Amino acid sequence: MIRLLWRDITLAFRSGGGFGLGLGFFLILVTLVPFGVGPDGEMLSAIAPGILWVGALLACLLSLDRIFALDFEDGSLDLLATAPIPLEGVVAMKALAHWITTGLPLVIAAPALGFLLHLDSAAYRWLIVTLLIGTPALSFIGSFGAALTVGLKRGGLLMSLLVLPLYIPTLIFGAEVVRRGAGGFLVATPLAMQAGITLGAIALLPFAAAAAIRVALR
Amino acid sequence: MSLISVKDLTVSRGGMPVLEGLSFAVSAGEVLVLRGPNGSGKTTLLRTLAGLQPPYAGEVTAEPESVAYAAHADGLKATLSVAENLGFWAGVYGGHDIEPAIQHFNLDALRDRPAGNLSAGQKRRLGLARLMVTGRPIWVLDEPTVSLDAASVMLFASAVKAHVAAGGAAVIATHIDLGFEETVFDVTPFKARMDVVRDDFDEAFL
């Protein structure tokens, strides 16, 4: 399974692999917002947590449909399904690879972009913590959506419609933690809720996604 | 003792049965060649044997994880080199050495070439070389010789011969004569009858 993780990461970094697609989108979105809403520092710092979280979420969504579609098209998914590793493990490794190549760079880039949005200095810590806790949920929920639409050509729209409602709790709790952190309030409750969603997604969704892929391969 | 056997098997595609009443067994050292016109259900049968889809009725008996499947798509990544592609599959199947496979299929000179730059026949050779690194006893092959030239077909045939001589078995759907002792199984007489009313569960929905 480590081989699969390593292959997916290698593929992402090779030409046409899509590494940097999410990150680039995130950079563009966050740098454009101050131009759109004006340079008023107070307003920017008020909307910063929400913008950063919405940006991270959409950036994750952008590369989701590639998780299984490429392997489905070139036949690798058939071969992986007959390989000695369980399909649940395949899904989990591919979701993990997606997080490492998409979610993790967002976590690292977010503080620099928070600066552009006048994010309150007390909130940086919480921004990094929530993104670190929340983005794995985006990748695992997304892998489930990608698995449901794997047999469809151009399944991206349907996948977005399926996945976005499932992303909302992560978004709400993530942005809430950052907002509370900026105001100096207690953050334990939303943080625990978000961590719970992430752990639940990691524990359950690989099984659902593997079942969806088995149906798609018939 | 047969490596893989099917009993009264019905296979379906999109919820519609395509072949029914199939019964055969393949023992170690045996090659079963499936014949039948296009669309007769050879691929569906092979996918069922490989465990990619459940039988519609009847049963397939084989040791778990004993089948290596190769279909029209070779499962190659265009941006990985020949050795990386093969090394990945070898790793997935438990770390067999890739050297014998590379040598056998004449891929040594192409070792560091990205798979995306290979010709169709070279890709096919790499896809077939994958079978040798799986270490699985039963090869289930769907039209393995598509886009291979005569010399490569001989390479492939000798790989299959070596495999069955070492106690393996192969089930191959092909239209050409590969020149080894084989049992030919024509699927045409087993075409499923369409006029029979079956249970009304809509499997196509799944």
Question: What is the H-and-E element order of chain A?
Answer: HHHHHHHHH
- Note the overall shape of chain B: globular
Number of helices of chain B: 5
Number of strands of chain A: 0
Number of domains of chain A: 1
Give me a quick take on this structure.
The complex is a heterodimer of chains A (218) and B (206). With 218 residues, chain A is mostly helical.
What does this molecule look like?
- The complex is a heterodimer of chains A (218) and B (206).
- Chain A has one domain (2-217).
- Chain A is built from 9 helices and no strands.
- Chain A has helices at 2-13, 21-37, 41-62, 66-73, 76-81, 87-116, 124-148, 156-183, 188-217.
- In chain A, helix 1 (2-13) packs across helix 6 and helix 6 runs antiparallel to helix 7 (124-148).
- Chain A is elongated, with a radius of gyration of 18 Å.
- Chain B is an alpha/beta fold.
- Chain B is built from 5 helices and 8 strands.
- Chain B has helices spanning 42-49, 82-92, 99-104, 120-134, 150-165, and strands spanning 2-13, 16-27, 31-35, 57-62, 67-70, 138-142, 169-173, 183-186.
- The longest helix of chain B has 16 residues, at 150-165.
- The chains are: A mainly alpha (218), B alpha/beta (206).
- Chains A and B meet through helix 1 and helix 5 of A and strand 5 and helix 2 of B.
